[in-house]
Design goal:
alpha/beta; 341 residues; globular; two-stranded antiparallel sheet; 21% strand; 9-stranded mixed β-sheet; 11 helices
């Protein structure tokens, strides 16, 4: 069994693999195996791997299972103490893996961690999707240390300390294999988006921790599969986020939070239409809410299982405020300005 398995999920990403996989091969440790799990690509990804990266192990699927189920199917076939879920559009740096491994080795209560994620296009700036560790507000909206909504900070070393976080980015996520399967892995029904937040929430419900370790740095392109403003991405984000809340919220919070989310989602939809003139995203938010209502009952069993192992204490990294209020009304646009009031 390998100590670490670095697993890259690929779908028609030949260009990304040829550009960024060399850094993974060069800068990863001898005790780490490198895998590419291919989601039925129709480009030349497999030929590229065979001819240019013979040292990389491959798994080939006959169907595009998406991010969540694709990783579940891949990881079931890989034996390792730790998995690293790594996007194909990530460039890694010297010793990126060592800090993550050493921390996990001496902190058995940590189920998952991430490095500092910087932008590949501007390496002095945090990357949108994960920055320096993720949090969610009372109503399920995610934000990061280094990125809140559209405000992305420059990296001036202000977050160069290890910190407990609510969620680690799926762009580069190290997870303890035993803990991954204790909570049944990623939810394959999500297909893509919010699945890593949902996974980390379940870790917290077991009393485990999730951590950002900024001593390790990687550089992420982001939006390689779907651009940020793509209506399909908007649909998946809203549908999956609502589903995540339904699965994980305690009974005494569920009704109030979901009522407020209904109001906030409709505000977001009309703001998208009025200020951005984006009818596609406006429509996608309504479709997401309809899809959530249609399949909500399919997750009743998940709610029951999570309730059965829930640690009966608040999760400190789930913030007890509205990030919408903080950002748009209190004008607190960077992480260090946020406060309960």
């Amino acid at each position: 069994m390998d100590k670490v398995a670095i697993v890259i999920l690929n779908w028609n990403g030949s260009g990304m693999l040829s550009k960024y996989l060399p850094s993974v091969v060069e800068y990863s440790r001898m005790d780490a195996s490198i895998w590419v799990a291919d989601n039925a690509s129709t480009d030349d990804s497999l030929d590229l791997l065979k001819t240019q990266f013979p040292m990389v192990r491959t798994l080939v699927f006959d169907h595009n299972y998406g991010f969540a189920e694709g990783y579940n199917r891949a990881l079931k076939q890989i034996k390792a103490l730790y998995y690293v879920l790594l996007n194909s559009d990530v460039e890694v740096s010297h010793h990126w893996l060592t800090s993550l491994i050493e921390y996990m080795d001496v902190h058995p209560d940590v189920a998952a961690c991430q490095p500092k994620l910087l932008s590949e296009q501007d390496k002095d700036s945090f990357e949108y999707a994960g920055a320096c560790g993720g949090f969610i507000d009372k109503y399920g909206y995610p934000f990061c240390r280094g990125r809140i909504f559209s405000t992305v900070e420059n990296d001036n070393g202000q977050y160069d300390y290890t910190m407990n976080i609510f969620w680690a980015s799926g762009a580069c996520l190290m997870v303890r294999a035993d803990d991954y399967w204790r909570v049944d892995g990623l939810d394959g029904r999500f297909f893509a988006h919010n699945e890593e937040i949902d996974l980390c929430w379940r870790f917290h419900e077991l009393g485990l921790k999730v951590v950002c370790i900024p001593e390790s740095e990687v550089y992420h392109v982001g939006g390689g599969t779907l651009p940020k403003e793509n209506p399909k991405k908007t649909f998946l984000n809203f549908r999956n986020n609502l589903t995540m809340l339904y699965k994980n919220l305690p009974d005494d919070e569920l009704r109030g939070v979901m009522r407020m989310r209904c109001f906030l989602d409709y505000v977001a939809a009309f703001a998208t239409l009025i200020f951005q003139h984006n009818f596609g995203n406006f429509k996608a938010i309504f479709q997401a809410r309809m899809a959530y209502r249609k399949w909500r009952k399919d997750f009743d069993g998940d709610r029951a299982r999570i309730e059965s192992f829930r640690v009966k204490k608040p999760i400190a990294e789930r913030k007890n405020f509205s990030i919408v209020w903080q950002y748009y009304f209190r004008r607190r646009k960077i992480f260090d300005q946020l406060k309960d009031d």
